[in-house]
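User
New here, help please:
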Amino acid sequence: MTVLKTSMRNFFAHKGRMALSAVAVLLSVAFVCGTLVFTDTMNTTFDKLFQATASDVTVSAKGSSDTGQTTSRTGKPPVIPASVLGEVRGAQGVKAAEGTVFSTSVTVVDAKKDKLSPTSGAPTIVGSWNGNDARTMEITTGTAPKGPGQVMVDEDTADKHHLKLGDDIGMISVVGTHHARVSGIAAFKVTNPGAAIFYLDTRTAQRTLVGQTGVYTDVNVTAAQGVTDAQLKRNVTAALGHGYKVQTAKEVAAANQKSVEGFLNVMKYALLGFAGIAFLVGIFLIINTFSMLVAQRTREIGLMRAIGSSRKQVNRSVLIEALLLGVIGSVLGVGAGIGIAVGLMKLMGTMGMHLSTDDLTVAWTTPALGLLLGVVVTVLAAYLPARRAGKVSPMAALRDAGAPADTKAGAVRAVVGLLLTAAGGWSLYVAATADKAKAGSGWLGLGVVATLLGFVVIGPLLAGGLVRILGAVILRIFGPVGRMAERNALRNPRRTGATGAALMIGLALVACLSVVGSSMVASATDELDRTVGADFIIQSDNQGGLIDPQAVRAVKDTAGLKRVTEYKWTEADFTLPDGTALKKNTIMATDPTYASDVRTKTVAGELKDAFRPDSMSVPEKFAGEHGIRLGSRITVAFAEGSTTHLTVRAITSSDGLIDAGAKYTSVQTMAKYLPAHRMPLDEMLFATAEDGHQAAAYKALKSALHDNPALTVRDQTDYKKALKDQIGQLLNMIYGLLALAIIVAVLGVVNTLALSVVERTREIGLMRAIGLSRRQLRRMIRLESVVIAVFGALLGLGLGMGWGATAQKLLALEGLKVLDIPWPTISTVFVASAFVGLFAALIPAFRAGRMNVLNAIATD
């Protein structure tokens, strides 16, 4: 009980000094809890949506997607004949059945040709208005569609794009473009996570999406009273046979949930990973805080030991303080985490994914996990300072207020740090020289962990050398004040090393990802320059990325073009010369001009020969694994087509980005063995202008495709910029998440300086008494902060560039051969680190400047 009282007294006596450590715990726990609440809420939202929109039993085509997405490469959804509806209605236990048609491979535009699609990545759905939708949607304005000239739109999409009754809407599908005017607006009765939905009447939907009447994509079946979904499924299957997909509402909901589960898990674990980094950085803050508090209370601890307190009691007293810190920070963090989750929901709302706070889901495991993590991490971080406090000798403590130095422990630490760093460096070397990316990635991970731990452990040793160098370069120009700042930073190398290490972790990851991202862009740019001979690349930005036939005709009819190359793919089963059977392999089909559009390196034969009748190419690695050589014949069974034997006329090099792993045949060969209505749409088009007419052809292409905003025309400059922008957006998002760790590291610098000022109160008073001005005192503290921040930045950036360069060596095995160090980014981060140091020193320097000289000198 005495130990508890002592701990409580000490904790509240130093509550101001504990505050920043509590903030670090709070932020880390809040990020974990916020992530869990946010992803749980998204799961709840999707669960409610899928359960509400699924009929008791759904009948669809055998090859249709479980998730309801249009998966056919033809751009049309898989359909079933209308006769199925009558058979289903005759099945036992059926109360009602209704045929529906819908597709997700549609581009919807307004009268100005602007796309009416979600920005959140959710699908655009065009379908027939039916009774199942009427259960989950409420018409708030106008009426349901009646006839080919009418369309109804969901309320969220109408609000976002300012649509009103009577507005013209164009729906561009593989069949053609259908125009209709808004007849009604319907609101979801459950939360819509962001899909844009447009309703037509059934006959119009059939003609617009499939090009024929008398077919449905689904039949929605409602069970009679007392009939379970499972019983109804058995009855419907008995009536139809096994030629169709029959699913209960629960099965449909589960399949849909599985489709979003992967995305949600990636988001969840990525965010938790960044929270883990913040926890790691927070550990250094907590260690520094308790180490300095123990050092400042050395005399007090000595008195406790002198009057009979044991080492265990002193140790336990410090750990109880840590426990209080962990509990308070974690409890506040759980509450803040719920706030973060609500904030993320609002942010997703601005991006088009609507999440209602009515669905906010806080499972009991979330606060439990947050509390457990926060408390355990805090107590573990405080263990070393607590153990050090227990070792304080009573007599030594009473003689000297400073903490006892442990020379032996410092030597052991240096040796361990050097060994870890050496082991990490060796692992990185092995990774960089690996022959296979998969084998090297394990060594890379080991090297990253070992070098990070090594630099953390060896930090005090590095601080002694680097701070002196930085002092000579940066601080000496400030005269005596600069030299005092340097000595303050060197006074306790362990503290400086730990403070710099906290900043090092975040900046190392920033530098590593910058090098990898920049190298990816440079490699892709270099590959485009070397291999792509076409002037323009046309692609669809829609989900699925297919180009409809009318757009292909528009491109081919564009004036000023020398050639247009189609590029499509489908699935096929292969039987290889060695007897190996491969199911659902991808085979690309393109025109013979592709050999000129993309300068593909071959190790045997010429790529142009692969486009001869009944011919194909295979990649080098694939050929080596299966003993394939020029002249080998491969049995190819096209999905939904016929089976043939294709002769290998070229073996392409696996040493590249664009063609690595691809198997090619000609469009004509594919068309020979696939029915016309099964031919896949184009994935992209390559176009080459007449000599000297590139600018005019570029303008003409954009004009020809103006009516379909989903299609983008890019020249090579545009394509390079798009790649750079995509990678840049990803990196910016990652940098934003890493900002949490950097904020915690900044708190660590602030806390270290604040506690250092308290520790040196008497010293500061004496310096002020002998003539040091307030301005000089503040500058001294700011310079000390800057040198610590720059020290951490040097370690982090150097370490991160080493990791990034090693990662690029592995990526080179996959075709990304150019190493590019983004010096502007690295330089900006380095300079920003100095400003971080200045910012972190503002409050400690201000407090030091306001210190009363006489009171400071009188401090014991």
Summary: The CA atoms of residues 500 and 791 lie 6 Å apart. DSSP finds 28 helices and 24 strands in the chain. The mean pLDDT is 85. The two ends are 29 Å apart (CA to CA).
